Amino acid sequence: MSTTTIDSNSQSDGSSFSVGDFISKYIFSKDHKVIGIQFLFSTLLWFIVGGLLALGIRWQLAWPWTDMPVIGNMLFSAEGGQISPEFYTMLFTMHATVMIFLVIIPILAGAFGNFLIPLMIGADDMAFPTLNMLSYWFMWPAFICFSATFFCEGHGAQSGWTSYPPLSVANGDAQTFWLLGVTLVGVSSMLGSVNYMTTIIQMRAPGMTMFRLPMTIWAMFITALLQAFALPVLTAAGVMQLTDRMLGTGFFIPEGWIVNNAAMASGGGQPLLWQHLFWFYSHPAVYIMILPAMGMVSDIMPCFARKPLFGYKPMVYSICGIAGLGFVVWGHHMFVSGMHPTLGMTFMVATMMIALPSAVKTFNWLGTLHGAKIQYTTPMLFSISFVAMFVIGGLSGIFMAATPVDIFIHDTYFIVAHFHYVLFAGTAMAVFGAIYFWFPKMFGRMMNETLGKIHFALTFLFLNGTFFTMHILGAVGFPRRLADPYHYETFRHLLPMNQFMSVCAICMVSVQVIFAFNFIYSLFWGPKAGRNPWKANGLEWQAPSPPGHGNFDFQPIVYRGPYEYSSPYSEEDYYPQTTPPQDGVDESGDGHH
Amino acid sequence: MGKFWSFFFALVPILGIGLFVFAINDWAPIRGHWFPELISKSHVIDNLFNFIMYLTGAVFIGTSIVLAWIMVKYDGGSNKEPVIYSHGSHTLEVIWSIIPAVVLLFIAIYQMDAWANARMYRPTLSDGTEMPPHARVTGRQFEWKIQYPGKDGKLDTPDDLHLINDLHVPMDEDIVIRIESMDVLHSFFLPNLRVKQDVVPGMQQHIWFHAVKDGTYDIVCAELCGWGHYKMKGRLTVEPSREEFDKWLEKAYAEQETAQYSLDEE
Ligand code: HEM
Ligand SMILES: [Cu+2]
Ligand SMILES: [Cu+2]
Fold it and tell me: Which domain holds residue A521?
């Protein structure tokens, strides 16, 4: 492991650094940037799969039990082009599974974490490049396991992404593949996590103190910690469920359990145990799914506000606060599960308090924009929309944290609204912004701004049409995961609203074609980007675009934090971290008061 | 462009709040897009929801206005003022940490009673003992088995009445229901009474409510229990009085007995 080696020979194309053929350069690469881009492409492809699964759900909710035009016959010819209840159960199970385990988590940590960490801290690569390569290649068996679930008898995995036993233990073979897939994704995340922590602690360039790190790096660091502490619990729980299924143990199976009129031999377990173990991981996981997005937004915003980030240290502390509290709130998913009500009360108080650091972050983002000179570029629009949408998702969290209210809205569309505002309107929009922002660094070319803005505007409109309306469905008590909610008199009249939402959802997915076109076109024919097209401060912008193997063609030395925009000490309205201060000028207190 | 984008972002709070106003006031074209009719004596869940809604609504409107204003005023294309070179403000951080902290703690403490009433303080009889269950509801894929204790007031005795998906209760009384599961998780959800409780195999739980309006209402299963989850629908009938309920019980019991005899004779 070499800490900040100066490779004086390395050229921008990196040809003298890496010997080897195409395979070792682009397939089994140990270069963190290539691995990051491999993660990016894989996750974007799964994003398409996840989106199509969502359209299947929306089709059934708007036009239940009717033939799906054109693609219906392709997908489920056995049922004459209609969605069956089993197929519907698979659709929402796999939609969530794909989006969470194969898109959001790996695109944040795998793609952006990999690409950005060494570049932003001024290192030549990760601490453990081979481990890094393995973390990508462990995704492939996971891809295969999850794909296999689709081909298992009985339409695939059908226990929901939460896989609550005893149902999940009784379900078919697809559940076994599902559990293996989740375990493998976990191994991949764990390998990444170890690497990120070590790299961030050990390999920072000279002068890059912890409090000069960009927010993205802080977020990735805390995320890696969350992974390291929470993941083993999920892995253990997954193995326990596997042995319940295959070896006849009874961790999650109560005494005298009967399914399909046949008694099960084992017993003595507790179904709620799974829920505790699952949410002990999966609540921290929701922060794994948003902290890196918050970090990236905190880096994009100051750049296009041409103004320092407001409250850097409070921003860091609130990330730490969210992560710490994030370990003691998992029970808010179990308020009506049968868990003891006193325990529910303590989880309620902790959950209320976790809204606090989220609020602090929001106010600091607004503070960053106040007094700025905002440039409305595509990455900036996505970042501002992240803040606006996160407010909605954070506020709806307070309703559900209130235990009595949660009795009514638990497992209704109110919850579905909540997590789509934080995960789609929040994280996915931030990821789009990050792609537009760092694309020039990844591929050396700019994406088209006009197409970017059209993509932003349409996605923003349709996403709100799809998800905002879910709040009022939740207020009616409209349950999630029902193949035919209109079976109940209480919900029968909600069909037209659902049709409106489905039309919005179809449009939302369709307009992603604009993004796909822009991405692919710019990859080959976009205008060449220089090193620093946005006039940003971060170290990554001092490297060539794209950086060669080994990243920097000089030894970066860091003199200040990454948010010195419009600094009085600089002639220009930005002040890169590597620019040495002028003689005799005291940029007091690290630039932070 | 600042004006345009500011307006564009403001569309969400404007249309969103408009949607809520239409829904809350039950205006066309979205009649019935708000809480289903409340038939419980207690209004506390609805009141708490409304309270949180007005509070978070105020925060939502506040941040939306600030954002819209900032996006116009500090548009780089038109703002001639120099950028305010500031790294933050200690005073502001303290203010905007303490105020939300106090408000959140207040909500947390304020709702504790409602939670305790819904989950801890089971109704009692006049002598102070816990009220016995009015019926036992057992979930199984994909129906609700309902068992009434019969004349002796005890479950699992020969005079019990067994029905499927058909729960009757009298109006204007505290009712305790015992809920169980025979197979997988289900969730016993009465939208009109704001009652929801997962049923867990291996656990015996009790829920209680007090209906103040007669009629028939949905019993919904709210926890995924397999492919037929969507059709696990029961019916709750609130009888206008204890007498009506007893009359119904007698009749249903007689029907069960004749069905039983004809079965025995075959
Ligand atoms: C302001 C902070 C937040 C609070 C107070 C909060 C509160 C809650 C509560 C109480 C639930 C459980 C609701 C129920 O099942 O009845 C929930 C569900 C959920 N939350 Fe949050 N939340 C917050 C932020 C977030 C964030 C930032 C994310 C993700 C990035 C997130 C993702 C989710 C997801 C995915 C679920 C649903 C899981 C499922 O049942 O499938 N939440 N939230
Ligand atoms: Cu949670
Ligand atoms: Cu069910």
Answer: 25-255+267-542
